[in-house]
Amino acid sequence: MKKIEVIFPPDRLNRVKNILYPLTIGGMIVSHVRGIGMQRDELKQKEKRFYEFAKIKLELIVKDSELQKAVDLIIETTQTGHVDDGKIFISDIRDSVRIRMGEYGEDAV
């Protein structure tokens, strides 16, 4: 299993949720986050500046077999080519437990 964390602009949330629903995921965690990033000044490519931003952080767990499809769909839905498109982070999940049923592993997702 993999955990996908995606940081992206809030105006794309509905599109991302709708495109991911058909996948076999147990659900998504959506958080409104604020951050500070660094980008190069467009006029002076060597000069970097910090900027504050408000974004959405979406977290979901997917089966290994659905990871690439999920990532491709997220990119397809959020990519505009602009500096603020966001980031995707992927990490391994060792195990999961559905508390209500006592299920472990992929069955708990």
Secondary structure layout:
Blueprint (H helix, E strand, L loop, with lengths): L1 E7 L4 H8 L8 E12 L7 E15 L4 H12 L8 E6 L4 E2 L4 E2 L5
Helix pairs in contact: 1-2
Question: How would you describe the overall organization of this protein?
Answer:
With 109 residues, the chain is an alpha+beta fold. The chain has one domain: 2-Layer Sandwich (Alpha-Beta Plaits). Helices cover 18% and strands 40% of the residues. The chain has helices at 13-20, 67-78; strands at 2-8, 29-40, 48-62, 87-92, 97-98, 103-104. The strands form 2 sheets. A 4-stranded antiparallel β-sheet has the order 2-3-1-4, covered by helices on one side. It has a two-stranded antiparallel sheet with strand order 5-6. Strand 5 (97-98) and strand 6 (103-104) form a beta hairpin. Helix 1 runs antiparallel to helix 2. The relative contact order is 0.31. The model has no long low-confidence stretch (mean pLDDT 88).
